[in-house]
Amino acid sequence: WVTDAGTIDEVWQDVDGIYIVTLKASDDKPMINFAYKDILRGIFQATDESGNSTGFQTAYFEVTGIVSDTQFTCLPLNNIAPHRFMTLARQGNKTNADRQGSVYIDGKNKFLRVLDGVNSESIGQKDIKVQLGNLCGIAHPIFGQLEGYGALLENAYICGRLVQHNPTTGEDWTVGAVTVSGEQVFHFDKDGTPDKESITLTAQEFGITSTADTRAWQYKQGEQWLTIPNSNTTTYTLRHDNSIWENRHTLTLRYIVADTYYDIITVTKLYDGDDAYSVQILSDSGNNFINGNVATTLRAEVWRGASNITATIPEARFSWLRTSDNPEGDTVWNQTHEGIGSTLTLTDSDVWRKAVFECNVNLN
Fold first, then answer.
1. Rounded to whole angstroms, how far apart are CA atoms 249 and 207?
2. What mean pLDDT value characterizes the chain?
3. Reduced to 3 states, what is the DSSP secondary structure of residue 166?
């Protein structure tokens, strides 16, 4: 532990079960005492009745008062008493945010960890601000169960060139993105006449340059994505009577490059006098963000025919779903976004590379 530390020289217990601890002082080293409400971690070697070592154990204490420069009172947090020669390290503080951080180096498990926000004897994933090395012990709410060696960073600020290579081939790893824009609604009057014959969707590419043989437009049919014939340009014109609608009221399409980079858009048919329900999701700041600077609010609108009925539906009936390349993280994310309302604010922590968001509305 890279933090405040000390070794116990004497221990005395009062009648209330509180311990008065005196730290060992050194003439050639400055004395570091602890502070009120510090959470201390003590490591000691336990023995059996015969005095044989049974391994190391960990004890936790809360500092309840400061007596002097080298003395403090404490309360055991896991029923293990402090004793002479036990080494103590501060891992956090119950109330003082300035004393809730530390650095932990684990040579056996091969990682370095920066902690902050620690206010109890338990260290949770939320307290890990940086971890370098072995990441296998972390179950992240966004990324799921981490594996292998790497870096987990709460924030990253990088100057200079960021170089990525394919670990298998050694080739440069291309970082790119695409975005799709265009109208999203066909309106039909009571006679069944549409307000427009077609909608033109336009794709933009960032960081990549596709060719005709690497790009395509597809539409969603169940769990499958079907490629639209002769759709290898950056624009696609969708007619209201195209056969790919197959009697649907909504049609979800995507533009995809090299089977890797894609963006999705849903087009809806709304009919005057029709009782069909549909949900549209609108993004305040678009749906493509470069360099991970995600900042937008999604708004779900519920339509009954040509009427917007969103305001008549209780907010608790709106639940959001995320689909990404990290199914374990999606499961955790989805559980925490049930019944949260018709708006969803997205930040960098919600999107890793790419993600698709849906909104389920319970009308019953």
1. 35
2. 88
3. coil
